[in-house]
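SECTION: protein entry
WANTED: fold as tokens:
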Amino acid sequence: IVLGGRRSVKRIGAAQLLAAQRLGLVPDFQAASRAGRGIATRLTLLDTAVLSAYNTVQIE
């Protein structure tokens, strides 16, 4: 999974992403994108099936 911000690109695994969401470290991707904070302006899923059940993930 590649999370692309305005100034950085972070590669994290699905388990880490879900753990971060549970801890509130990663907000709703749509809200983050609208806020323009570069938290998750683009989200590319290497394996779309991994996170297909999670509504907070926006596949662009």
About this structure: The two ends are 13 Å apart (CA to CA). The CA atoms of residues 18 and 26 lie 9 Å apart. The chain has one domain: 2-44.
